[in-house]
Design brief:
By secondary structure, the chain is of the alpha+beta class. The protein is 39% helix and 11% strand. 0% of the residues are buried.
Length: 74
């Protein structure tokens, strides 16, 4: 059931410090190597070219290292 059919698409909740509104948001699925391999296969006829392209992209992606904290409980 979408918001339009539920009759709440234009509802607004007024709060002391602002408003809450319902809106439609688009979430895109992540661009994964599996996705690329599946869809490159539809436009490139040679599976070896697809494999080469995927391997090339994997090798060229940027790697960023950062520090993080991890808490453990006893």
């Amino acid at each position: 059931m979408d918001l339009q059919s539920a009759g709440i698409s234009k509802q607004k909740i007024i709060l002391p410090d602002g408003d809450l509104k319902i809106y439609e948001k688009k979430d895109y699925s992540p661009l994964t190597f599996v996705f690329l391999e599946q869809h490159l296969g539809t436009i490139m006829s040679d599976p070896q070219q697809v494999s080469f392209m995927i391997d090339y992209l994997k090798q060229k992606r940027e790697i960023k290292c950062s520090n993080d904290l991890k808490r453990t409980y006893k």
